């Protein structure tokens, strides 16, 4: 049996009061999750803001995550 990890830190993490992550913070977190071998990283919704769009773009360019990892 293989356990697959679907991480929502970058999306749900900002739901907590007082938490705001910059695109660079999100990229650093995503890189660590990618290094750990997380199967799916839910980055957020790029339509929400320009900052969110920047973060998603940075993450998809920097991380080795591919949808084929499943």
Describe this structure in words.
By secondary structure, the chain is mainly alpha-helical. It has a domain at 24-69. The protein is built from three helices and two strands. The protein has helices at residues 9-12, 23-36, 50-62, and strands at 6-7, 40-41. It has a two-stranded parallel ribbon with strand order 1-2. It starts with 5 loop residues before the first strand and ends in an 8-residue tail after the last helix.
Number of strands: 2
Residue ranges: pLDDT <50 for 5 or more in a row? none
For the termini, the CA-CA separation is: 13 Å
**Count of alpha/pi helices:** 3
Mean pLDDT: 85
Shape: globular
**Beta-strand share of residues:** 5-15%
Helix/strand class: mainly alpha
Reported for the largest beta sheet, the result is: 2 strands, parallel
Spell out the helices and strands N to C.
EHHEH
Classify the helix fraction into a percent range. Answer: 40-55%
> Strand order within the widest sheet?
1-2
Based on CA atoms alone, the radius of gyration comes out at: 12 Å
Report a brief summary of the structure:
By secondary structure, the protein is mainly alpha-helical. It contains three helices and two strands, in the order βααβα.
